[in-house]
Amino acid sequence: MNRRTEQQRDRIGAQVLVCTNDRDSEYACCADVGADEVVAAVKSWLRDRNAFWSPIAVIETACLGLCSEDGTAIAIQPRDEWYSDVTPADVPDLLEREFGPEAESIDERAVGGGVP
Ligand code: FES
Q: Which atom in ligand 1 lies closest to the alpha carbon of residue 35?
């Protein structure tokens, strides 16, 4: 086992967790309401700003507890920001709100930079 916390803290300023949970159930799940398209939109927005993975990681997750018939759930960590009902069309505004138009507002809130 290798503890690699410092390496990751240096590399990753934030994590965008996108629920892609699929369930065979009567209840809504993100996989049924466009989660794959939301993940693609998140990655595309970050890639266009050269911010994909370093410094902003994208993680597909299981249920975040914000299930909806109207869109996908996203959490931004370590900021403790949570969104539900996200559609691909919402992604640019959501990410711009969090990280600025060019994904420039990362370092001051980065994990390694010391989150208050
Ligand atoms: S299935 Fe995505 S938040 Fe529950």
A: 2
Task: Decide: 76 and 98 in contact? Cβ < 8 Å.
Answer: yes
C-alpha dist (Å) from residue 33 to 12, 51, 73, 84: 28, 26, 10, 11
How far apart are the CA of 71 and the centre of ligand 1, in A?
9
CATH number of 14's domain: 3.40.30.10
In a domain, 59, yes or no: yes
**113 lies in some domain:** no
- Give me the number of domains the chain comprises: 1
State the pTM of this model.
0.90
Instruction: Tell me the best of 39, 67, 84, 87 to mutate to test the pocket of ligand 1, counting ligand atoms within 8 Å of each CB and taking the most.
Output: 67
Place of tokens 């398209």: 37
pLDDT digits (tens, 9 = 90+) for 52-86: 988 999 999 999 999 999 999 999 999 999 999 99
